[in-house]
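Feature request, filed as a ticket because there's no other form

It would be nice if the structure record came with a short human-readable summary line next to the tokens. Right now we just get the raw output. Example of a typical job, pasted below so the devs can see what we mean:
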Amino acid sequence: MKVLVTSKSFGRVAPDAVEMLKANGIDVVWGSRPSMTADEIAAEIGDADALIVGNDTVDAGVFAAADRLRIVHMHGTGLDAIDVATATGKGVLVANAPGANRNAVAELTVALMLVSARAIDRHIDILKSGRWERTAGYEISGKTVGVIGLGNIGQRIVELLAGFNVRVIGFDVNPDTAWAERSAVGLAAAADDVFAGADFVVLALSLNEKTKGFVDARRLGLMKRSAYLINTARGGLVDEAALCAALRDKQIAGAAIDVFDPEPLPLDSPLRTSGATLTPHLAATSVESAGNVSRIVARNLVDVLLHGRSGCAVNPGALEHRTRKK
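Raw output as currently delivered:
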């Protein structure tokens, strides 16, 4: 058996994950380069039984070129770049590692809130330029934080905020009301209520057809002029042109963005000069989370390839299609 790896992170800090696969008779073959295009993956997928990807696009062309493929595993959580419907029809399982990087993403989210409120990045640039200037920022204590998306990561963000003396309001299409009550989270009836009421609006949503462009000009217009937008989820959630306009016109106080559409962020992107705090999609990138994810991926591949299990998959029904093809 053979697995093709295009993820930049798989096994980097957890070589034992690679050894686990090899010890179970699974050959590990690295792609010709990290972050490959769909066409490049299709050209190299060949006789691979499994594929481990990072933020690579896995489209219908990849599945058409993969006769033996049994599972595509995301080295992380987001599956928006994988054509799950086509995978299912081809009998290919699709899996991710939910929860493995929740703490890393949540910690960076809170860090970006602090950076934004105190203009830390701007003051670093000022000091490095040789000047000694200070402007007063804001404390987050006593403020209202709105978290949109109360899954694994959203809940961890709330946990980390517990010591900051903030009021938390949240929105989720399927909220865990018992958890919200235990965590003193006020559940909003609609996402718009969070945008209108929060001093910090934090996005912890997955990206899909319903959430693409979720933060548009209308919702930005609901926010307080003193409010900040924090996005460590997915770039496609935010209309970047509308955000740049809101920052330019001072409709909101600021934004901290870790994810973009497209990525890498183009050199001519207006976001680069918008005044927003920008980081290069590093929320999930910690030594601890990378190791956690690599080990989960390796265990799942062994379960699927050697034992025929599908518990890790988001589309276990794919096995029915594979059985029919046989």
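Something like this underneath would help us a lot:
The radius of gyration is 21 Å.
The chain has a mean pLDDT of 95.
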